[in-house]
Specification:
The chain is about 80% helix and about 0% strand. It is mainly alpha-helical. It has a single domain, classed as Orthogonal Bundle (MetI-like fold). It is globular, with a radius of gyration of 19 Å. The protein starts with a helix and ends with a helix. About 35% of the residues are buried.
Length: about 210
Amino acid sequence: MTSSLIISLKVLAIDVPLLLIIGVTLGWILAKTEFRGKDLVDVLVILPIALPPSVLGLYLLMTLSHIPFVREAEILFSFPAAALAPLFPSLPIMIQAARSGFSSVDRQLEQAARTLGDSEFKIFWRITFPLSRLSIMAGLALASMRALGDFGVTLMIAGNIPGRTQTLPLFIYSNVEAMNFFEANIAALLLTAVGIISLLVVKKLEGKRIELS
């Protein structure tokens, strides 16, 4: 189980910063801008949640396998694929949380800063982001937990290779298949504990947000 735990932690170390950067960026764009095709983008953002993981994994496998760089670099069925896979089902959670946070910011505050000559970058860092941070942090906690628990997409594009791509959910699957329920239960309890902690963090952040509103 140790190697699977280490792989899962490595995946989180890569995915958490990516979730934050991509999720905040797309959340801000969807909350603060209007453009042609926005409704389609909204649908595409939510689609990974609506699709069964096996279907999403199949589409990703077919798409990535036709990209020359991915084939040449042998990314599929390797650790990079294991790190990439959880992003797709967890990003919608992060994007929607960031979008909700940015949408809740009073536009009059931002407009007042513009009349004072502040740049959009300065407005974002001094007004928009600080007022949205609780929603963003709650979304990051939930999205990170979703990434840690991903099974279907990871299995489809990274495989279940012990010591290389076998994360904790895949470790549980392999041990249940081998009728080794003791090891499977230990890993399951670990993931359950992390899930409970994540939900408690989200509940606390949402409580603070209600107090501030």
